[in-house]
């Protein structure tokens, strides 16, 4: 397959699921011998993804937020493909690609109900998605919210050089917002007063959570590099009310960390109950308590089985080797 000049464009202030996806996508496309540039629409200061990509030898561009600058840069470099992530990149870039005859792809990562201005931007993003040549969603529920032809494209992780976790922490990893349901994680911790529960992330619910959380909940705040944290984690809990296919679940399982989750988004495609993790009825905290008991009291052989099955699932279906060739083929089909 011929080398392509591919731009991945996003607007980002910090690090979350979209940023993790873009980082893995950039590395995966680069490994497939494409010329990849990650473009940040605005300069919000030093960005953890930018630092890591530059260290890995990839190109990054940071723009000034102006439409004219974006237009000039696209016109000057004329990439073969531009792949947008997030509503701002999608809304701004798709019409420019259409006018310049550049292949455009857009991935939709979020399916939860938006509020305020975000609701308007989200509506506009979805209703202008038809301007892209290819539209992807990371889960079937998200796919159903896009009012134009679109297809499922799984999130994935790069599995090369990953070390297995031997940690014992029970952890929540994600934004502290209603759809991620960190309040359920705090409720879970109250059932185990002599065990520590760890929260990695920040968000609008943090202050209220800190007030209501028992002493055994440790708040670590937002993380710029989870690679240093994963080795400490033994069980990832995903108590979400709404999801796509969360990057945290893939990152954990790629390192042999089983995931206990409520059945939401595309997690039923990822998790096989009691084989590589646990998939529970939405909001069933009582069953989640049982899972924590079972995991905590499991023998080394059982833990090894969960670990092996988790890693195998990622390598077969959610690794760069499994997903990137499909994306490249989709890019080519539009040109």
Q: Note poorly predicted spans.
A: none
What proportion of the residues is helical, as a percent range?
40-55%
Return the average pLDDT rounded to an integer: 93
* Structure class: alpha/beta
Termini Cα gap: 13 Å
Number of helices: 13
Q: Radius of gyration, Cα only, in angstroms? A: 20 Å
Strand content: 15-25%
Task: Please state the overall shape, judged from the principal axes of the Cα atoms.
Answer: globular
How would you explain this protein's 3D organization?
The chain has 335 residues and is α/β, with parallel strands linked by helices. The chain has 13 helices and 13 strands. The chain has helices spanning 17-31, 48-55, 67-77, 87-100, 116-127, 140-143, 182-189, 206-212, 247-254, 267-270, 285-296, 300-317, 320-333; strands spanning 5-10, 35-40, 59-62, 81-85, 103-108, 134-137, 151-152, 169-173, 197-200, 217-221, 233-238, 259-262, 277-280. The strands form two sheets. A seven-stranded parallel beta sheet has the order 3-2-1-4-5-6-7, sandwiched between helices. Strands 10-9-8-11-12-13 form a six-stranded parallel beta sheet, with helices on both faces. Helix 3 (67-77) crosses helix 4 (87-100).
What is the structure about, briefly put?
Helices cover 40% and strands 18% of the residues.
